[in-house]
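Aim 2, interim progress: modelling of the guanosine-5'-monophosphate-bound target.
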Amino acid sequence: SSLPRAAAVATAGAFFAGGVASCMRIEEEVKLDYKDVLLRPKRSTLRSRSEVSLDRTFHFRHSKRSWTGTPMIVANMDTVGTFTMATEMAKHHCIVAIHKHYTVDEWKQFAAEQPQAVPYVAVSAGTSANDMSKLDAILSTCPGVTFICLDVANGYSEFFVSAVKTVREKWPQHTIIAGNVVTNEMTEELIMHGADIVKVGIGPGSVCTTRKQTGVGYPQLSAVIECADAAHGLGGYVCADGGITCPGDAAKAFGGGSDFIMMGGIWAGCDEAAGAIVERNGQKFKQFYGMSSNTAMKKHAGGVAEYRSSEGKTVEVPYKGPAAAIVLDLLGGLRSACTYIGAATLEEVPRRTTFIRVTQQLNQVFG
Ligand code: 5GP
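Predicted structure of the complex, ligand included:
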């Protein structure tokens, strides 16, 4: 229909109860996930994938730093955001958001033994006083670390915004990644209070049960598109966090305007991920769990507090061998996507992107 856009946000249930206006709204505009689209191929002058560069240089709004690398970040989950992973990912110029459960001494040792990996790691922290003082201790002990990942499940609280502001004031020259949010106004809010990169995603993760437990979320590709637009208007960046299951999803995230991508599950079966290999019926697996799963809460907080429920799963994923093979598969897929759409660099990808809405992604005849 040709309804004006404003009318698309329908007031589905405005009614008065005891004189109090209640206004439940439904946004009718279609919101998309990676599975809902494909990238339209376009004519190009590129002759080979080897002509595509996946390195990009970023200039951060607040820290005033520049950083060059491949903008893939391994998630700060204690299974994959490990120092071993960081040592490997640095070879590919990718970042690891190190999980927050290493001690200051372990950080010191890592920085001394793997100095080449230091520009490719981020220190993670939540908003607790304990996290804040540990963040200060790590940054003071390891001056080469320039990325801070401030991470809470719900980036919408005022308390979180003020934590971002405090860390920004304390560490003016560090690049702050903050999240998670899924809407434009909160992306702007975080950037205005000191974030250089806003992490986007509520509920899309492979071991996340937030949508099931709370009914809250936002289709990830639309969240990325809308937040990227808001961030870029303010000279900030976004990082699409969660729900990337294959190189094609990564290409779509960049196509939607994401500057960085964060992935957890994709690395879970690697040698560099923590967790023992389990063998069952001749097949090898590794354990993987969400950071607010029962498993993680038992490990780090002595159990699930009574007032909350677990919002993460524990799973076993097939063993995949070295992370390098997955990196090469991802980068190969991304280079090929760039060739199909005619983008010589990652930065050009959004400009060369037209998404086509689809009802089918893959031919499943052979499973
Ligand atoms: P994946 O790449 O595995 O699809 O998503 C990784 C992301 O899932 C993480 O970066 C983080 O944002 C999110 N995540 C990790 N653990 C949990 C959890 O226990 N609950 C929820 N809701 N999200 C999680």
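The CA atoms of residues 108 and 225 lie 38 Å apart. Residues 75, 77, 153, 180, 201, 205-208, 210, 241-244, 262-266, 290-293, 311-312 surround guanosine-5'-monophosphate (CB under 6 Å).
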